[in-house]
Amino acid sequence: MKKEIIVVRKKNNFSSKIFSGFLTGVVILMLLFSGPAQALNLNLEISEKEIIKGEKTNFFVRVDMESENLSIDYLSLNLIGPIETECKFKTNGEIIENCDGIIIEKIKTNKYGYGYEEDKKILNYKITLDSNEYFAGVYEIFLYVYTKDKVYMKEGGSIEIKPTQTPFLDGGCSIRAKNGIVEVGDRNFSKINKINFYIPERKARKGQGFFTAQDGRIRLSYKFKIEDVLEKDNNHTVILVRGDYKIGKENKKSEKSVFVIDSKNKILEVIGKNIKIKYEEISAKGKGC
Q1: CA dist 93 to 43, 88, 162, 274, 288, Å?
Q2: What is the pLDDT of residues 68-95, one digit of tens each?
Q3: Is the domain of 116 the same as that of 148?
Q4: N or C: which end of the chain has fewer CB atoms below 10 A?
Q5: Rounded to an integer, what distance in angstroms lies between the CA atom of residue 278 and that of residue 190?
Q6: pTM of the complete model beyond 0.70
């Protein structure tokens, strides 16, 4: 059964006191006939919204349950940026999955691990993010709370992880490779495949490339444009790309990926939501590589 998603926002004031009073009366009558409220109020605050890679930031989460009968299945902190992370955790703070670089601490207000305030059950968490585990870039932050019938969502704004040094290419870079390890969802295209792309000098916004693979009669193609250089040091270049991929006769699907180029060891990793690729022997030509 598909769950209803409820976006938690601040309520607006009504300009008319008469209408407000009438509406309040209607709501009270509805509550009397419908029983206890099954609602959540969410709050999400960020300690540092701009950090340099290697630093940490904290997310402070508060969940107010207006009924003791409301049961939470699990919570998730989602980061949407160069890569997407959905960190799932239990109400006691125990991590379920996908929480690399994240520490969750349940803040205890009494010996039972939660507090009560005006008949509300309150859950508080301190979530620490280690930016070493993430690529530089801007990440949108969302909190989700999953109950049996509904999903509650709170937007938290964004954070920016800045690189330790400004990415700079002192020349163009052309990358080619073939027959790497390729996974798209639960499909494997590791037998026959190749990738080819070019990063222009200084700015990577006009770069583009393609990837093709074959598994029997099924063909995979991924055409992409390079949007930005996220990180650059003497041995590594990290770029953000966006494009569309197609498998066989299926419809095209959009895919955002991060390419990590290890020029010293001749390794290329492609990290996307659906596409995962690794080449252990690449050909890199150009001063910018």
Answers
A1: 16, 10, 28, 28, 45
A2: 678 899 999 999 999 999 999 999 999 9
A3: yes
A4: N
A5: 10
A6: yes
